[in-house]
Write a structure and sequence with these properties.
The structure holds 2 protein chains of 2 kinds. Chain A is mostly helical. Chain A contains 3 helices and 2 strands. The longest helix of chain A is centred in the last third of the chain and has 35 residues. Chain B is built from 16 helices and 4 strands. Chain B is globular and about 65 Å long. Classes of the chains: A mainly alpha, B mainly alpha. Bound molecules: protoporphyrin IX containing FE. The site of protoporphyrin IX containing FE has 28 residues of chain B, from α4, α6, α7 and α10. Protoporphyrin IX containing FE (HEM) binds next to α4, α6, α7 and α10 of chain B.
C-alpha cells in the first residue's frame, strides 16, 4: 500500500498549500457575475447583505474537493477487499494477525 | 497478514520503533487495539453511526477553531464578525457553512445512533455505562446546538434563544435561577453572548471530549454487542484495521454529502438582532428542539392544577431519568430476551416526535 500512503501524504500537503495561498486552480476559475447575493434568514432580509461566490465557482470548488475524496474512498475499498480476503481465508480461530 | 502496530512501526524505522517501545507499552496498546471484534449480521450497518457522529464532531472541532480566529463574542461584534467571516475571510463562508451543516448532520447521526442502539438493545449488560455516558453526551451535543445558535446574533437566533431559555423557567425551585444564569440577567442581551460563547467553546467541549473518551474506551473494551436472537454471518471481523477502514469509507461519503450541502447551499445570516424590535411571526427553534417546543404550544395552560410548562418540564425530567436508567429497568434484555413493552413504548415516542416535527413545518 505504498501508493496509497504516498497519495494520502501528497493530498494532505497539496490541500494545505492550496488553502494557504488560495489555490491557483480555484482562483483562476472565472467568476460568473462576480458574486451572487444571498440573504438568508427569511423573512428579515432587509439590510444585511452577505455575498457568496458565484454558483459556477462553487461547483468547481466542490469538484476540487469531491474528486480526491472519491479516489481516496476507492483506494480504501480496495484495501477493505484485500483485508477481507485474508479474514475469510484464515481457518476458524486462527490468530488473524501475522 | 494482519499487521500489528509494532510491525508497522518497524517498517517505518527500526530506530524509531526501538525508541518508542523503550518508552511506551506499545505491545499492550497493540493487544488492546486487536481486542475489539465486530460481529457480522444483518444489522451491522448500524455500527457505523457512532463513528459517523465522531467524524462530524472532529469536523466541528476543526472548523470551530478556525471560526474562533475571527468571531467576536460581543453584542456589537458578533453579527459583524460573522458577516466579515462570510464576506472577507478567504474560504470563511465555506468554513462557517461546513460548521453549521455538520452540526445538523452530527445531531441527525447522533439521534439515529441512539435509536439504533435502543432497538438493538445494546444497552443491556455489560454496556450499561455506554448507554449512560451516551445519554449525557446527547445533552452535551444538544447544548452545543443551543448555545451555538445564538452566536451569529441575527434575528432568528435571538428570538429562538429567547423562547428556548424561557422553557427551563418553569422547572420547580431552580428554574428562574437557571434562566438568569444562562441569560446573564432578566433578558437576553449584552451579557448573554459571552456566556453562550464560553459554554460553546470551552465548557461543553471539555466535558464532551472527556465523555467520548469514556464512551470509546468502553466500546474498545467490550467490543460491539451482538443483537438478541440475530443469526451471525460468519466470523467476527477485527475492528482494527478491517472495520476502521469501513468506517473511513462511510466518512468519505459523509464528507462528500457535507461538502455538497455546504457549498451548494451555503449557510446564510439573517438581519442583526434588535433588542427593541417585537418578535416576528413564525420564529422556530432548530428542528431538533421542535418536538419539545411544539408540544409546549399544544398543551393546555393548566394540567392537573399545575401550569402547562411546569407539567411538561416534570414529565421530561421523569422521562429522561427513565431513559437514563433504562439498562437497569429492562430486565428482559438482561436475559437476552426482546422486551416488547419497551420497544413499543420507544416506537410510540419516536413516531410522536417525528409526527409533531413534520406538523410544525406544514
Ligand atoms: C457524541 C456522541 C456520541 C458518539 C461520538 C458516540 C460514539 C460511539 C461509537 C464510535 C460507538 C461504537 C460503534 C457503534 O456501535 O456505533 C458507540 C457505541 C455505543 N453507543 Fe455511542 N456515541 C455517542 C452518543 C451515544 C448516545 C446518545 C447513546 C445512547 C444514549 C449511545 C450509546 C451507545 C451504546 C449503548 C453503544 C454500544 C453499541 C454496541 O456495542 O452495539 N452513544 N458510540
Amino acid at each position: 500500500m505504498h501508493a496509497l500512503r504516498m497519495f494520502i501524504i501528497l493530498m494532505i500537503l497539496s490541500s494545505f498549500s492550496s488553502l494557504q495561498t488560495g489555490s491557483h486552480t480555484i482562483d483562476s476559475v472565472p467568476y460568473e457575475s462576480n458574486v451572487v447575493v444571498i440573504s438568508a434568514g427569511e423573512p428579515f432580509n432587509n439590510e444585511t447583505k452577505i455575498e457568496f461566490p458565484s454558483f459556477s465557482y462553487r461547483v468547481t470548488l466542490l469538484l476540487y474537493f469531491v474528486i480526491p475524496v472519491l479516489i481516496l474512498v476507492f483506494f480504501i475499498m480496495i484495501k477493505i477487499r484485500q483485508l477481507d480476503h485474508t479474514v475469510n481465508d484464515d481457518p476458524p480461530n486462527s490468530g488473524l494477525s501475522s | 497478514m494482519r499487521q500489528n502496530l509494532i510491525h508497522r512501526l518497524s517498517r517505518l524505522s527500526p530506530s524509531i520503533r526501538t525508541w518508542l517501545t523503550d518508552r511506551l507499552p506499545v505491545e499492550t496498546i497493540d493487544n488492546h487495539l486487536k481486542n475489539k471484534m465486530v460481529p457480522r449480521h444483518r444489522h451491522t450497518l448500524w455500527y457505523y453511526l457512532g463513528g459517523l457522529t465522531a467524524f462530524f464532531l472532529m469536523v466541528q472541532i476543526l472548523t470551530g477553531v478556525l471560526l474562533m480566529l475571527y468571531y467576536k463574542p460581543t453584542i456589537d461584534g458578533a453579527h459583524q464578525s460573522v458577516a466579515y467571516i462570510i464576506n472577507e475571510v478567504p474560504f470563511g463562508w465555506l468554513i462557517r457553512s461546513v460548521h453549521s451543516w455538520a452540526a445538523n448532520l452530527m445531531i441527525a447521526a447522533l439521534l439515529l445512533h441512539m435509536v439504533s442502539v435502543f432497538y438493538l438493545q445494546a444497552y443491556r449488560p455489560p454496556r450499561e455505562l455506554m448507554w449512560m455516558s451516551g445519554f449525557i453526551l446527547l445533552f452535551l451535543i444538544l447544548g452545543f446546538g443551543f448555545t451555538g445558535y445564538l452566536l451569529p446574533w441575527d434575528d432568528v437566533a435571538f428570538y429562538a434563544t429567547q423562547i428556548g431559555t424561557e422553557v427551563p423557567k418553569s422547572i420547580p425551585f431552580i428554574g428562574p435561577t437557571l434562566v438568569g444564569l444562562l441569560r446573564g440577567g432578566e433578558d437576553i442581551g449584552e451579557a448573554t453572548i459571552p456566556r453562550m460563547y464560553t459554554l460553546h467553546v470551552f465548557v461543553l467541549p471539555i466535558a464532551t471530549l472527556f465523555l467520548i473518551g469514556v464512551h470509546l474506551f468502553l466500546n474498545q473494551y467490550y467490543g460491539s454487542s451482538k443483537p438478541i436472537k440475530t443469526p451471525l454471518k460468519g466470523e467476527d471481523i477485527p475492528f482494527y484495521p478491517n472495520f476502521l477502514l469501513r468506517d473511513f469509507r462511510i466518512w468519505g461519503f459523509a464528507f462528500i454529502l457535507l461538502l455538497c450541502l455546504s457549498i451548494l447551499m451555503p449557510w446564510g445570516l439573517g438581519e442583526e438582532a434588535d433588542l427593541l424590535r417585537p418578535a416576528p411571526e413564525g420564529v422556530k427553534p432548530e428542528w431538533y428542539f421542535i418536538p419539545m417546543y411544539q408540544t409546549l404550544s399544544i398543551l393546555p395552560s393548566q394540567i392537573l392544577m399545575i401550569d402547562g410548562e411546569t407539567f411538561l418540564n416534570i414529565v421530561l425530567m421523569i422521562g429522561g431519568l427513565i431513559v437514563f436508567l433504562l439498562p437497569f429497568l429492562d430486565r428482559k434484555a438482561k436475559n437476552e430476551e426482546r422486551n416488547k413493552f419497551i420497544l413499543i413504548t420507544g416506537t410510540i415516542i419516536i413516531v410522536y416526535c417525528i409526527g409533531i416535527t413534520i406538523s410544525a413545518y406544514m
